[in-house]
Amino acid sequence: MNNKDKTLWEDMQSRGYSRRDFLKFCAWVGAFIGIESTGIGKVVHAMETQKRPAVIWMHFQECTCCSESFLRSSHPIVADMLLNTISLDYSETLMAASGHQAEAALQETIKANNGNYLLLIEGSVPTKENGVYCCIGGKTAGSILEEVAGGAKAIIAWGSCASNGCVQGAYPNPTGATPIHELIHGKPIIKVPGCPPIGEVMAGIIVHLMAFGSIPHLDGLGRPMAFYSRRVHDTCYRRPNYDAGLFVEQFDDENARKGYCLYKVGCRGPVTYNACGVTRWNDGTSFPIQSGHGCIGCSEANFWDHGPFYQHLASFPGFGIETNADTIGLGLGIATGAGILTHAVVTNVAKKKVIRKHIDESVREDEPIKEEGE
Amino acid sequence: MAERIVIDPVTRIEGHLRLEIEVRNGKVVDAYSAGTMVRGIELIVKDRDPRDVWAFVERVCGVCTTVHALASVRAVEDALDYQIPPNADLIRNIMFCTQYMQDHVVHFYHLHALDWVDVVSALKADPAETARLAQSISSWPKSSVGHFRDLQKRLKGFVDSGQLGIFSKGYWGHKAYHLPPEANLMAVSHYLDALEWQKEVVRIHAVFGGKNPHPNYLVGGVPCSFNIEESNAINAERLALVKHLLDEAHTFVEQVYLPDLMAIASFYKEWGAIGGGLENYLAYGDLPTNQFTDPSSFKFPRGVILNRDLSKVYEVDGKDPEQIKEFISRSWYEYLEGDEVGKHPWNGVTNLAYSGPKPPYEHLKVEEKYSWLKTPRWKGFPVEVGPLSRMLVGYAAGQEEIKETVGAALRDLNVPVTALFSTLGRTAARGIETRLVSRWSLEFYNQLVSNIRNGDTRTFNDAKWDPDLWPETAKGVGLSEAPRGALAHWIVIKNKKTENYQMVVPSTWNASPRDSKGQMSAYESSLIGTPVADPLNPLEVLRTIHSFDPCLACAVHLYDEKGSYIHQIGTW
Description:
By secondary structure, chain A is an alpha/beta fold. Chain A is built from 15 helices and nine strands. In chain A, strand 5 and strand 6 form a beta hairpin.
């Protein structure tokens, strides 16, 4: 039996895992994606019946931090599954073959799994000067993207580069770095912003896709709700200090040594949606605030252009302790529609038209990934 | 009749690298190396707060994450004559060592090993023989017959499935592979062990910098604070975690990486005479034991070696306008003065002018301009940078620990010192320095604990944090040693803002195109003479190129989209 026709359970069996390992893994998946324990049976059933997807991982304008973060995912059985259980058929970082052998691997995967493979994209696409700023195998990133996106079942835009252009898209964006959702339409796109995203979050999203064959619940910007629905500020263990007005005034002062709130030395936690305060980084070891540096907001669109990192938000007009993130977003003077949307989409129903545009570009609430032409 | 081979993408690297090589009678006779992606980060940091720039430039590379942040904060501190507390240097050093260990191990197993290790051949191994081999070279516990039998069974299931994933279309069965099946099986086992371990060691970055990749840095020190009596600061538990991870790293390097390196190298000694390339080596040095302003205190010494003459080490000065210059005669850029001049980074002008073929293309115009990389030169000489340069400069400068460790490795392999000037030497040097760094990291840790015990917990100096205290203009250079070699950032600050920012990074030195005199840089030069048994499967070429650990995202420069001059800074 060809591996790609195997279910996850059959695949794990063939690689020496016991039923107990399998059930433990299912329980972990269930816990990870927030299912009550009574729902674990559903996960087990899904895992017993879902087929393994072929996966293509493309690199465009990026720094490879997303791949590196992915390798940091801290659950061994998951790491093993990601290396083997999803069939990672094309990944320039890890694959043995180079040059035309690599190209052949890509073409074969596209052909053999047309309409069924999962496309993971790391990096933005430069659109100025006809795309000469990023070429692979003599072809532009833009033309490669078109070629590989056509037969994909779903696309994951890893990290801030693919989700919003990240550092190369910051002012003056010399190469015309463009995020994936602006170039590809009519495909489900899951955005996983962050510079990079947390490894366990990346693994969790893939696990969700594998386990249920459906897209996780996304917000209006196409980000999985499980990881991007809360502000870092609201899940921060230093939040009580903020509420009590206990602030670090300068790095390494007495208050810094007591772990007070970093808001005054430039923490962007109040305007940043991410899982850092909950999931934390590197097997739950820490996250930026816990290690004494404010959040720089790396999962927010255009975060590089939201003013200096060490200037605290109160310096901006319209910011008070009771103000919600929407107003802060506007108060920062973010000019782009996407930036405003980040904050407006939560409450501001008057922007229906813009929101509709974004919803069309992403996929809503757990709807199964449809085949082309369904 | 020469045959032109194109390898694009070169995989198992960071970034986008293209090689065009000519093969005649089974040997490479000409080679062109091209960086094919550019982002323009130096232009993006212009006019930003210099204290923010580390975060931007850290994103130059997520594999060697941290190194650009370190070079950046040093450049700003140098410009402002900003002293940092001793603990900040120690923490930066510990993070530096952590980066080396993680980066070098991942390079060896996940980016380089498949050039030497035939995964498919491991299926033929005898698990009992594999266990005997593994136990004969190391006390690493995962070396039982049962372990290897189990692994082989899983590997077999994987191969039988017909879906090889990342191993598909590899060069399996190529006649240039000559490890016995048992050594291949052992290496595959350690490939998986290394994948497991690498995510552990970087937790040190999370402790001090909040996350990895891309931990946080700070101009004037480091962002974390010590308080042994406080749960919300770096306390005894956090320090114990760091110590535990450093001990584990030391064990992994000593029991897995080094024994494997030596075992595999012993089967490929002929590569001690292949892939040497350039005869000049440059290292800026790093790991200050006094402070960054005192290069004599560095664990990795600073200097240049010319013509492989280990009896003399030349001094390097990043501020001397005549020493380090960048040329563009074969790069897609323009200088006002024409293609012959070189520019010191403080006067850097970077002005894009793509003149390559219109994509999609079969071949680059290698007789003209063919890369996004500029070509740096030291006093006009092409130099190699990286682990080999660090070890040679250390050896020649008489750094005792380096001399001893390099000497021991040469004795173990029973090869002369000249074997270092090769593909094998480059790969061995990387392992040798990892062994040193894993020891040094514990020294830095002990020093840190001792400082705290003696009541010095300072991690940040606020003396020059306020931009109102800065001079109107200031220039600085931050020199460092990234895992892949000499790295420097040059900054010009004007009216509290970044006026000019230039980076000359390891892969710019190594992977750049030839200069106007026709002198090749390290990649191209090292490929000349490399044997190629089968031009359709150029495994040998990948061996030499991967021995440099290519990392391309950082090596390309900024440009101005209109083709106008962005900035030209006069020399002061």
